[in-house]
Amino acid sequence: MDFSLSQDDCRFRDEVREFLRAELPAELRERHRQGFHIRDDDHRRWTQILGRKGWVAPEWPREHGGLGLTPIQRYLFDEEFGAADAPTILSFGRNLAGPLIYTFGTPEQRARFLPPILAGAEFWCQGFSEPNAGSDLASLQTRAEPHGDAYVLNGGKIWTTEAHHADFMFCLARTSAEEKRQNGLSFLLVDMKSPGITVRPIWSIDGEHHLNEVFFDDVVVPADRRVGEEGQAWSYAKFVLTNERTSAAGLDRMKAGLRRARRLLVRLAPGLDPTAVTQFRRRLAQLEVDTIALEWAVLRVLTADAREMAGASALKLRGSALAQRVAELVVDLLGPEALPQFSDEGYPHNADHNYGFADPDAPGAMTTHLYRRALTIAGGAYEVQRGIVAKQMFGL
Amino acid sequence: MNLSLTEEQLLLRDSARRFLREQYSFDVRRQRLGDRGMGGELWTQFANMGWLAMSLDEELGGSGAGPVEIALLCEELGRVLALEPFVDSIVLAGSLLQAMPSTQLRDDLLRGLGAGEIVIAVAVLEPGARYAGAAGGVVAGLTSEGCTELTGRKILVRGGGEADMVIVAAVPPEGNPGDLGLYLVTMHGDSCARRTYSTVDGCEVADLSFDRTAAVDLAGGPMSAAAILDEALDRATVALCAEAVGCMEAVIELTAVHLRTRKQFGKTLGSFQALQHRMAEMHVECEYARAMIYKGLQSLTLPADERQKGVSAAKIRVCQAGLEVGAQGIQLHGGIGMTEEYPVGHYYRRLLVIEKTYGDLAHHFGRFEARSPLIEAQRQ
Fold first, then answer.
1. Which chain B residues touch A285 with a CB distance below 8 Å?
2. What's the CATH superfamily of B7-118?
3. Which residues span the domain enclosing A134?
4. pLDDT in tens, A223-251
5. Across the A/B interface, how many CB contacts are shorter than 8 Å?
6. Which of A255, B96, B196, B247 is the most buried (most CB within 10 A)?
7. Around Cβ A52, how many Cβ atoms within 10 Å?
């Protein structure tokens, strides 16, 4: 057992730190620090900055254009982003579409789609959930019917994050009706500019627009845009999502939230009742302790022998709930000043913009808190995950 | 960084698990509960397995194992609810002595400890002083001949009932409450009055009353006695946390079997979703507690301030998980979980005792917070 970082890892971490210090635009950092969702133009700009360094998806294997980072280097990479209040790029291209395509795609698909992801030239969205298929994903009904050398896509997706900005969607669609619902599904790479696609915005409770409903009306998808075998998409989806679970569980965001809470408590403590200070301190300490536990659970998944890891899949179960509690603490520290609806439109690019509140941490805190309600729903509701753990671990 | 266990470590864990499963069944344990004392035979077997000397240097008869091996073994001891004071006598007393400069006395004590020939207890707690080691309840004085003697009372000394030696934390001569020295008392006939009793987990402890009892001052090295005790307690705390994880694992196994077999309302309990979810939560709690053992082990390699903070974080999280898992274990068993004849309640009681050993939640929260002062945030 070795608890220290290798020299290579330390050097890499320092390189990431130095890069972020030099290259992260200040206004982007400030906006991310406050907790607002990243704007599309900022996201493109930041991804392109990272792309020039080769750091959009450094954990990808070298033969697919990544740096082949070890799991621990990936962890350090994400951690440095968190420490610098740097936005991590959206996961759809980096963590999902990319690994899906380089693992199961054809050489032509890899050549066509991977380089633009790495350059920040094309962006992806995920076509999984449907109005009648949420946590019960296998009940999805969007159909792709073979028609010559193409599929004709009909149906619709919902909760599609960033569909209004995405160039492509990796879409789960039913290519045949089978007795077992998990069979007969295929992965299609859908050009979002195709005729017959309608994207309708869904405004969420955080006051922002990142979710959408997507409608397919006789959308033609060339057959060579199918990934892997027809009808086998369920196993590909499971593979890609499992792969995603070994990333850092949002630790970077949690640590940034804890720093914010700590900063706030320092600033507010002189004006607070001593009992309240004691209570807030204890809540902060509890969350810091829980974050340490999550961090070491992640480190175990990343570095320990697979034989010792039965049951570690459960670790994300609490990570999401913990992120919610951190955001709640920040809101509670702000008290009534957390209540105004800070409009995304009104976000100040001029540094001296003043909301009329004493506390610079107020904008974005409530937005973050509201947005994080989704963390225990997306990717399979908390209740579904618990059922999976009970079944996998105990055969219940 | 690599958190894998080596082949040797896996072997140690597996052999300990096998041995304890065979030798330390719940029935054997219940019999031991009725006996007084150390159950000399088992302690001798522990010595024969090499467990008591494991972390000693080779010239003292040990195998130079570290905290990782200790933690692996403690987890297995937790799994069977071993009654022997392994953590107190081997980890705590052993660490105290190992932190001191080599002398004939120290080396002899360590050799005897590792061979299972002598039992050494550590006396820290005093009435009304929570976890303070030298609140003034026991003070050291000097006789006119210049010999050291102790006067006062220590409580809840694990293994103190039949210890051959006791290491006592006390206020040094001319010192003030809070100043701390470490003293060795050889227990014989009338060296001190002992009252032996059990804590709720069935483990044996003793109160020791010293009245001008002859003692040997163990100070003299480069580290202060307070720093030595603090570090040794941190080592013992991590070992104890590993024991707690073993207890949790056992509770979860027992409960899962119960849910799979017990029928109510015409179906197995495990088919009720509310209970499946609770089972999943218990498992997740235990996984986080296990992760904290690694944090604790890592903390033992850090400078004092960070070590204390990390070990306290581990103790907090492990004990919270332990209390939750233990209590839910009883709840999911229903009435049988409340009985003396069924193991799950024994695990809960052990987990309760662990929470209050070497500092409870309140103590460790205080220690953790003191090492992450609010002022620090202003620099960021």
1. 365, 368-369, 372
2. Acyl-CoA dehydrogenase/oxidase, N-terminal domain (1.10.540.10)
3. 124-231
4. 999 999 999 999 999 888 776 655 556 88
5. 157
6. B247
7. 12
